[in-house]
Backbone:
C-alpha cells in the first residue's frame, strides 16, 4: 500500500459542498467514485484537510488516500484526471509517508475572497465573484484588517450552526485587502478557521467599507463573543480555499 | 406603441443557442417570457441582429420589440432585468424609430474568440475560454490574419450545414490576434459572417500557430471554395458576439 496526497482545484458552483452527504452532488463523492473505478470496484475513502460549503471553490484543497496501485506520481495525476468531471482538477500528486494525514497535520490555511466591484454586474463572473456595486473605503477596510490579525476568540465570527465543541480561539497571521482594477481580494492566513468565519469577516469588512461602521468596531465585536454583533455572512461564490500548509 | 432596442449580454453556457427551438432553453425564449409577463400575458416577439449557437456568448447582442408600455429607458432596463435569469444582462435600452430593425439594418459585427493558453487548464474559465495548452507562433498567426482581411468568397470557412441561399462573399475589415499574458484574443470585424465562420477561422489559425501550415495557406483555402480545405471548427465556448453596428 502507498499513501497518496493530491492537491486539487474545484469549481464549487455545481456542488452541495466538499463532503459526502445523503442528498446532492459532492466533490468527495466524485473523487471517491473515480478512485473506486481505478481500483476495480474496491471502495476508496479519501481524507481532506477540511470541508468547504456549497458554492465555495478550492485552488489548493489537499486530500490523501491509500492505494495498492503502484504507478508514478505523474501517472496518478493523468489516470485520476481522466475519470473526473471538468470542474475538478488534480494539480499535484505526491507519494507521502504512511503516517501523513491531510486533516490532522495541517499547520495553517489560506483563504481568499474575491469581490467584483464594478457598477454593472459581470455575468461571466457570477459564480466566482461576489458583486458589490457600491464604492468602498479601502483605507478603512485595510485598517480593520489589522484588528483581525493576532490570537483572538472568534466566537462572534463563527456561524451559530457550528457543531464545534472546543474553544473558538484562533490565530490569524495575515489579513489583507487589495483592490486591483475592479477586483477586491481579501486574503486570510491562520492556524485554523471556524465555520463561515471568512464569509462573516468579509461581510463585516464590507459594512466598514461602506462607512456603516468604523474599523475599530472589529475589536468590540471580538470582545463581545456574540455572533449577532458581527456583520452578515458574505455569499459563498467569492470564497476560495487557496492553500493548505503542512510542516 | 414604441419600438425599444436593447443591448444584451448573455452567458451561453446553459443555452441551446439564441433562437427559439422546439427543444432546449434559449435566450430568445427567456427574454420573450419576461416581456410577456410585463405585458400581462400578451405575447411579445423580439427580433435579434442574428442568432448565436449553443455555448456561444454575447457581450453586445442587439434586439428590438414593440411595446404599448410607456416608461423611461432606465425603467425598462430595471423592470426587464428583474424578470430575467442571472445569465442574461440588459446593458442598454434605447427608444428607437418605428422603422428600426435589429436584423436588417446591421452594417457590421464584431466577434471575439478567447483562448486560454496556459499549460494547465483553468477550470474556472472552462465555459468562457478554449484551452490550448501548446505553444503558438503568434507571428505566423498575425501574418495569416492579414490574408483574411478584405472582400473574399468565404465558402471554405462556412459550415456545410448552412441553409444560406445567397453568395458567400463577405468583407472582413479587421482580423487580429493578440496575446496578453495567458490569453489569446482573436478579433474579427466585418459586414457579415457565415455559419461557424469565426470558429472555422480560429481553428485554421490555431493550426497555423502550431506550425502545421504556413500563414499563406489562407489564400489557397479561400481560393479553393471548399470547406474541407480549411481547418477544424474551434469549440463554441471561446466565442463572443462582441458588438453589432448600425448607421
Residues:
Amino acid at each position: 500500500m502507498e499513501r497518496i496526497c493530491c492537491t486539487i482545484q474545484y469549481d464549487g458552483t455545481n456542488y452541495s459542498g466538499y463532503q459526502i452527504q445523503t442528498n446532492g452532488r459532492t466533490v468527495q463523492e466524485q473523487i471517491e467514485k473515480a478512485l473506486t473505478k481505478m481500483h476495480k470496484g474496491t471502495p476508496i475513502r479519501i481524507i481532506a484537510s477540511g470541508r468547504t460549503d456549497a458554492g465555495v471553490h478550492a485552488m489548493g484543497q489537499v486530500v490523501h488516500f491509500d492505494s495498492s496501485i503502484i504507478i508514478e506520481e505523474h501517472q496518478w495525476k493523468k489516470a485520476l484526471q481522466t475519470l473526473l468531471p471538468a470542474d475538478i482538477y488534480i494539480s499535484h500528486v505526491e507519494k507521502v509517508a504512511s503516517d501523513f494525514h491531510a486533516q490532522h497535520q495541517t499547520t495553517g490555511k489560506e483563504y481568499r475572497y474575491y469581490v467584483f466591484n464594478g457598477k454593472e454586474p459581470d455575468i461571466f463572473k457570477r459564480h466566482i465573484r461576489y458583486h458589490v456595486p457600491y464604492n468602498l473605503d479601502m483605507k478603512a477596510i485595510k485598517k480593520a484588517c489589522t484588528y483581525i490579525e493576532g490570537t483572538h476568540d472568534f466566537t462572534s465570527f463563527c456561524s451559530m450552526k457550528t457543531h464545534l465543541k472546543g474553544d473558538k480561539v484562533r490565530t490569524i497571521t495575515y489579513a489583507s485587502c487589495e483592490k486591483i482594477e475592479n477586483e477586491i481580494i481579501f486574503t486570510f492566513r491562520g492556524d485554523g478557521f471556524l465555520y463561515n468565519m471568512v464569509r462573516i469577516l468579509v461581510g463585516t469588512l464590507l459594512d466598514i467599507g461602506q462607512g456603516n461602521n468604523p474599523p475599530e468596531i472589529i475589536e468590540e465585536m471580538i470582545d463581545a463573543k456574540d455572533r449577532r454583533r458581527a456583520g452578515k455572512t458574505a455569499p459563498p461564490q467569492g470564497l476560495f480555499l487557496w492553500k493548505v500548509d503542512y510542516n
